[in-house]
Amino acid sequence: MSDTTPSPQDFATTVDQLETIVERLESGELSLEDALGAFEQGVRLTRDAQQRLDTAELKVRALSEDSEGRLNVTPFADIESPKDDTDEGKETPPW
User: Fold this and answer.
1) Distance CA 54, CA 70 (A)
2) Model confidence, pTM
3) Which burial class, exposed, middle or buried, applies to 21 when counting CB atoms under 10 A from its CB (0-12, 13-18, 19+)?
4) pLDDT (tens digit per residue) in 18-72
5) Is residue 53 within 8 Å of residue 15, measured between CB atoms?
6) Name one GO cellular component term (predicted).
7) For 3, 27, 75, 92, which has the most beta carbons within 10 A of its beta carbon?
8) Would you call 16 helix, strand, or coil by DSSP?
9) Domain boundaries, the chain
């Protein structure tokens, strides 16, 4: 693995690193060369983060689809919440 390739890390760490890079770039204190290097690192991290999001979306879809490829939506179990007098006369959401 080369020095320019980020090591595998969790998504939150990637986002934290991106935020740090953005702060450094916005500070205006970096030289042109350092700013370019930080930008390149940010692009790599952004692509890595997007790939992770895409992979997670595919996993969620695979777990949520039925055998015919339709989304299998299962509502949460009905949980009885305590009602008070202020709830009367108000519409409740469909979920």
Assistant:
1) 19
2) 0.60
3) buried
4) 999 999 999 999 999 999 999 999 999 999 999 999 998 888 887 887 777 777 7
5) no
6) exodeoxyribonuclease VII complex
7) 27
8) helix
9) 11-56
